[in-house]
Amino acid sequence: MSKSRNEVINNILSNILVNHTEEELQITTYNKGQLIVNESDPMHIMYFVISGKLKVYKEYENGKTMLLGFEDGFNILGDVEYYSKRDTTCTVEVIKEVELIKVDFNIINERYSDSKQFNDYIIKQLSEKLIDSQLNTRINLVYKLETRLASYFYSLYDEETKTTIEIDSLADISNNLGCSYRHLVRSIKSLIELKVIRKEKHIITILDFKKLKELSRGNVYENTSNKEEN
């Protein structure tokens, strides 16, 4: 079950940023389409996501992209880069308005480098990310395209606000899902024939959310292993 905004903030203060006060925490908002992290950029900030949804993907020199997953609710960005001292290796884009707390690496060094509680918490998160990463690398091999496509639409769909999704070009989606353009078109046609969706140019309308959820097999692109305890 997802936590409320205040519960997430309390968790951050009680279990992670224990040497901060609530007044010190500056909450920043990112809107849909904004990039929080851009691949290959130097990283000097750790981001503690309070709410919203993120799309994580990898960009290649040939212009293609590969979807790594969607993250919903509480998350930490910059932990890998902080401990490995490397530049970012993926791009993180906002899908649904995000609120987060930013802490400079210098502040983390000053206040938390010797904090067992902080380091234990972050290392646990890193371990879970490693497991999720191993699962993500097998998605294209394990799941058929219909399941991946249903999961993609499921992740972009906001049941509380609207039943329509504005999609990128089909070429971009085929890149993200690791399939051919022709295969993608066939799978979209299949979902239309099943009366799960309706497509009008760049707009996808969800007609049967329950069926979409079933086809997505619980959504293979959203990692939930670290959500239950946060």
What key attributes describe this structure?
disordered C terminus; three-stranded antiparallel β-sheet; alpha+beta; six-stranded antiparallel β-sheet; elongated; 230 residues; Jelly Rolls; 2 domains
Question: Can you offer a commentary on this structure?
Answer:
By secondary structure, the chain is of the alpha+beta class. Strands 1, 2, 3, 4, 5 and 6 form a six-stranded antiparallel sheet that branches. A three-stranded antiparallel sheet has the order 7-9-8. It has two domains: 5-136, Jelly Rolls (Sandwich), CATH 2.60.120; 144-215, Orthogonal Bundle (Arc Repressor Mutant, subunit A), CATH 1.10.10.10. The model is unreliable at 224-230 (pLDDT under 50). The protein is built from nine helices and nine strands.
